[in-house]
Design brief:
The structure holds two protein chains of two kinds.
Chain A: E1 18-20, E2 23-27, E3 31-38, H1 40-50, E4 60-62, E5 67-72, E6 75-81, H2 85-95, E7 101-105, E8 110-116, H3 120-124, E9 142-147, E10 150-158, E11 161-167, H4 171-183
Antiparallel strand pairs in A: 1-2, 2-8, 3-6, 3-7, 4-5, 5-6, 8-11, 9-10, 10-11
Chain B: E1 3-6, E2 10-13, E3 18-22, H1 36-43, E4 52-58, E5 66-72, E6 78-83, H2 91-96
Antiparallel strand pairs in B: 1-2, 3-4, 4-5, 5-6
The chains are: A alpha+beta, B alpha+beta.
Chain lengths: 185, 100
């Protein structure tokens, strides 16, 4: 029996996609997620394994399916398709075997939603204190911040498209605030 | 809302931060040789000045890093923030504004 067949089945706790006034809400499919802690060289090694570049401060590097999000000066969040979870973890551990680091699988800890539309920044501004104007928060920027009282990671993928990542247990709170905010758009 | 300059992330709303007590309180290199009075001072005695105070802050809901901050406890003006491990800035120069 392979490891993948022994995995717990994951059911999304997120409500289904819906179009609000001026912004479309969509749950992001289950993903492989790793938190990587270590030196800049550690991230460069991991980035090479994944086939991406080492993201600069407050930025994400990504291709169509994978991403590395800067979280702090020694911390990154790696996103990849769920089917790659076991293999990618092994490849990363092999490549990083000689370097002091921490690589933690948080695939089941986080959930993410996608918000897209001309009202996306206005909706996010109901819970986020940061300036979301494109001059202050350009495409490609990512940061941990607060949505209401919940820690979230916000990533601007396009001028009107955001990836909002939060802990699974915070999701009902965040979604509830988004729904309430959407009623006021 | 107060904006605090994180040395890594730039200006951020104060709600993302947590206070971490007085800065530059160095732990003895060899605690076994320290007498009770000095150990007590290290653990418990703090300056609590009226005026410029050097303190630790953590960007808890951001990059997660601890950093140091020089803040005026009278006006709550944050004079300077700098990375942990950098030397303590000169207080007199900070107050006259001759240091960036």
């Amino acid at each position: 029996m392979g490891e993948s067949s022994m995995m717990a089945e994951r059911r999304s706790i997120l409500p289904a996609a819906v179009a609000w006034h001026g912004v479309r809400y969509e749950p992001v499919e289950a993903m492989a997620r790793f938190v990587l802690r270590g030196s800049d060289a550690v991230c460069s090694t991991a980035a090479e394994v994944i086939g991406l570049s080492n993201p600069s401060v407050l930025r994400a590097s990504h291709d169509e399916h994978r991403a590395i999000l800067w979280q702090g000066p020694d911390e990154w969040l790696i996103l990849a398709p769920e089917v790659e979870r076991v293999a990618l973890l092994q490849r990363l551990e092999t490549a990083l075997a000689q370097a002091p680091h921490a690589l933690v699988d948080v695939s089941h800890r986080n959930v993410a939603v996608r918000l897209e539309g001309e009202a996306a920044t206005r909706l996010l501004a109901t819970g986020i204190m940061l300036d979301l104007d494109e001059a202050a928060f350009p495409v490609g920027m990512t940061t941990r911040t607060l949505f209401g009282k919940a820690d979230v990671t916000l990533w601007r993928q396009a001028p009107q498209r955001f990836h909002l990542e939060t802990w699974r247990s915070f999701a009902p709170y965040v979604i509830g605030l988004l729904q309430a905010g959407a009623r006021g758009l | 809302m107060l904006l605090i300059e994180c040395p890594y992330c730039g200006p951020r709303p104060e709600l993302e931060f947590r206070y971490g007590g007085e800065a530059h309180v160095a732990r003895a290199a060899d605690p076994a040789t320290v007498d009770d009075e000095h150990w007590t001072a290290f653990l418990f005695w703090r300056g609590n000045p009226k005026g410029l105070h050097f303190e630790r802050w953590r960007h808890a809901s951001g990059c997660g890093r601890f950093f140091n901050c020089a803040r005026d406890t009278v006006s709550d003006v944050i004079v300077k923030t700098y990375k942990a491990g950098e030397p303590k800035p000169d207080a007199a120069r900070l107050m006259t504004g001759t240091t960036p």
